[in-house]
# Entry
Amino acid sequence: MMQSDYDEADLAGFDMRGFTVADKTSAYDREDDEVDDETAVENEAAEVAADPEAADSALDDVDADDADDADDADDADSAGRPAGKPKSKRLFKSAKKAVKAESPALFSPISLRGVTARNRVWLPPMDTYSAVARAGKPTPFHYQHYVSRAMGGFGLVCFEATAVAPEGRISPCDLGLWDDDQIAAFQWIVDGVKEAGAVAAIQLNHAGRKGSTGCFSAGYEGGSVPQDDGGWQTVAPSPIAFDNLAAPRELTVDEIHGIVDAFRAAAVRAVNAGFDVIEIHAAHGYLLSEFLDPLTNVRTDEYGGSLENRMRMLVEVVDAVRGAVAPAVPVFVRISATDWAAGGWDLNQTIATARVLKEHGVDLVDVSTGGILPGVAIPVKPNYQVPFSEQVRVKALVPTTAVGLITKPKQADRIVRRGEADAVQIGRAALRDPYWPLRAADKLGLKPSEAPYQPQYIRGAY
# Structure
């Protein structure tokens, strides 16, 4: 293949600090990983806790073999769940069958609208800052990065945050779909992902006040890229700077409408490039997340104030994207369930918003946390974000994905089997091991003939 140039959510009894996972077998047995490096584990966990906005790059996965014994208590189905923890409601027949079947739930297929993923091990969108020509176009690196994970057995491969406008990039080296000329550069990679058996998804984003930032490939890491070196004036719901980044300019209502149109146009380009799924990025402190959060949105017009007003832009983007793509195309939204800060975005508001998003045609909520503020303390531990996914799933009755220190096959299978999420996302572990799903299939007892091997690689099966 050649490359082309609101209801209020009743959360009584839900306590993140007291949440435990119940099961008879250890989710974190050392036998689940061939290689363990406790120093690397500690360093990565500390990095996640100290830098929540990096969630888009890897907030989801760090090896953790020192999980509390409390996470290995009696199975929830036989010993009951902790007080106040709701019983999960099954949203799909396939999920119900997976729970009853002897085969791992993690490797059961899942269908959303007209798309079926072969399993529930998904690659999350992780920024690589590798569109080095600064034109938004992916390169052979991106082909290698995404197609290798598809060949490694992932059921869904989500391309990294892709800007809907040049000024919507996180860095000058972000991917983009703001111009028809960019479509062909994605097509050959999307074709490769799909030929390897995975669903191809893309995350559309506008970085807002966290745009024009430096990265390894552009320099100025940890700060803003000057306008005379390829940077730009950032925009936001309110003129509040993020940490030491340059102050953004407040968007006008007409400009908000223009960005909504940009999401619509980018979604059409994504479908024309062959993507099966469109994900809207409303997490980690980027533009749509900034509109949702009362700490960053102090507007007094129809886009600020009440929760209904603060979610208005996101709903408009969802409506624009949903209306622009075929009914068979699933639309996801990634959202931060909490910003871990007093007076800010929280789980109640997330659930209320998820209910509205479902009414507007969103098929799955990709649940993460953090990113709106720098230096926020996050209680990082294995599964630390899974309870948020379960609460959104149960209380909004919408499919969800889970992220957050999920690295072990048994751990991941247990999350799906219990209905805490409909799929799990493996991020940093997938950067270390593009073939993580194949190893997981072996650990969970699947025969090579039942695992997602490419025919050329079956001779090397575990």
Remarks:
- The CA atoms of residues 315 and 415 lie 29 Å apart.
- Confidence is low (pLDDT under 50) at residues 1-41, 52-89, 92-101.
- The chain has 15 helices and 15 strands.
- Residues 253-272 form the longest helix (20 residues).
